[in-house]
Write a structure and sequence with these properties.
Rossmann fold, ten-stranded mixed beta sheet, two-stranded antiparallel sheet
Amino acid sequence: MNQVKVSLVKCADYDNRAVRSAILRHFELQGGIESFISKGDSVLIKPNMIAPKPASCATQTDPAVIVELAKILLDFGARPFVGDSPAWANMKACSEAIGIVEPLAKLGVGIKQLRKPVNRRLEHSGAKIGISSIALGADKIINLPKLKTHQQLIATIAVKNMFGCVSGKAKAIWHYRKGATFDDFCTMLIDIYKLLNPVITIIDGVVMMEGPGPISGNPKRLGWLIGATDPIAAEIICCDLIGISPEQLPMAATARKIGFGCTSKGDIQIVGDLPFADSQIRVVPAELTPLRFSFPRIIKSIVRQIWILMKAGRKP
């Protein structure tokens, strides 16, 4: 088979010019922005917006990455908007927390809660799941996850970010329904990714999260943006960057079983800033908790979500 490209571009910090340059280089290394986007396309920028915490916590995709990608798409002639369905609170609260509301408004780029689910039958898992019609209605999707360790899945890198296109607290219910085994849950996540089919993934690994991710971990400077059209290849290379064996990663193991993506490191071509051996780090792993959410946990989660939204609504 032809080798799959994973692009690595060094980015020391979130200086806007440095981030813009790094994103543009990813497009160049992957064949040019015109390979992915056409002028006039409605493009969903799908960051990781999970909880209303500031950018310094490394809980969400950094604002510089979101805003600079939006500018690049506008300059190209596309019609970008930013959307997600956060596990905690909503897009308004999460966007305000990282300070993207004003800069995106100045650009005329909308921020949308991914709601209005429509049922879709998933290919391998057989589940019928509600996917946001707003996400489905975009001409193209660019996946913009945050690199994080994860208390249920070791690390979340590329594939799981598209789970945010499942509206609201339905995500917690699917943790219960498909969380009996890693294979069941990861197969569902892969099916969702395939259904939505992002044209490219650009992973925010400038500052990642280590420890008890995906919400309560600690920021860890890594200094990379990682790009790929094949999310599993990206996950394998990211594992190398942070000292995790890809064999430990449930997502990669499930992908290998169902024949999704590039699961062999020998079939991956790394392009961009090389070598990266001196940039490898060791991260504090997450202490694992059960993948399957219990029914009381789901109820507690829903009650907490209501409280967070009410609190956000009371802010001036």
